Amino acid sequence: MSWETWLADAATAREEAGLTRRLRPRSAGDATIDLAGNDYLGLSGHPDVRRAAADAAMLWGGGAGASRLVTGTLTLHGDLEDELADWLGQPGALTFSTGYHANLSVITALADRTAHIVSDAHIHASLIDAVRLSRAQLTVVPHNNVAAVHAALAARPGVRSLVLAESVYSVLGDEASLVELAEVCAAYGALLVVDEAHGVGVHGPGLVHRRGLAGRPDVLVTATLSKSLGSQGGAVLGPRAVLDHLVNTARPFIFDTGLAPAPAAAALAAARVARSRPDLADTIRARVTGLAGTLGIQAPAGAVLSVPMPSPEAAVAAQADLLTEGVRVGCFRPPSVPDGVSRLRVTAGAGVTDEEWDRAVKAIDTIVGEVG
Ligand code: PMP
């Protein structure tokens, strides 16, 4: 089969399954109420954040200019890493050009064929890809099942093991049993890697910190700068020995240009705002709990409410109807959903006004009611 035929067949199959994805450019002046993004605290457009990005671009230029080990490490990276480590209560931090790179780096640098990875079934794609790249032995355990993690570690005693979890899972929005996982990991000498992409900011310094696990030598945090911090980039936070190992061996760090000045400065400014404005996280909690109550579904631990839909087509149709009402929500369909259930994805962020939020809730309630 020629590759053109193969591409056309794949496109047809996607179309028939209702799974075709299309890019929809958003203009800068778009007045739609945006409940589809990950700018949970609404800091992307905060004046301090915008100004910091613009000032950094003027001072340093458009890019870091090189990979971090060449000349691409700026004093700005150090300032950002110190701020993040201080906020999250960790010995140190290392920043990356994306959260995806942070996850790829941690797993590929710490695991190889001789290691065993125990991964929650709902783990993010970046961690799944990282595990594949690492070639480690893999056990996928049922979602949020500490007993299964225990059994998986017990099955390979003496093998260097990593356990992968998200503090708040992206799709279902539920919280990992972090304390119990840390206990099991400690019992077997395993390293617990917690992706806090949806935890930091929404839960202040994150759930690893909130659950008293920050700074432990056997708990490593990865994070993104692109959600609550309204910027771009990623970070790994934990023991210095791990960070040094990443600097020396992590290919997605070594062979990648350093995080650009504007997003680094934006994330730094956003972290400072987030630390001084705990009320933003309170707004998220109130909104997400209120909307969950309105729709009669369980409130998530994070900022995103997943609303189950009867089919991918119904999810897409409800999303389009909401857009007509001036409300943009996200839509999860296979293959981005671990359990095959299509969902609307509604971000209860702090970035919209109370009036906008109330208007959006009314529209969502009506349109979801019509589908259900
Ligand atoms: N981890 C999780 C849980 C995520 O949801 C995401 C982004 N969707 C990432 C990692 C990747 O972060 P980034 O967008 O900064 O690459």
Task: Explain what the structure shows.
The chain is α/β, with parallel strands linked by helices and 372 residues long. The chain folds into two domains: 229 residues, 3-Layer(aba) Sandwich (Aspartate Aminotransferase, domain 2), CATH 3.40.640.10; 94 residues, Aspartate Aminotransferase, domain 1 (Alpha-Beta Complex), CATH 3.90.1150. 45% of the residues lie in helices and 15% in strands. The protein is built from 14 helices and eleven strands. The strands form two sheets. Strands 2-8-7-6-5-3-4 form a seven-stranded mixed β-sheet, with helices on both faces. Helix 7 links the parallel strand 5 and strand 6. Helix 3 packs parallel to helix 11, helix 12 packs parallel to helix 14 and helix 13 packs antiparallel against helix 14. The site of 4'-deoxy-4'-aminopyridoxal-5'-phosphate has 13 residues, from helix 4.
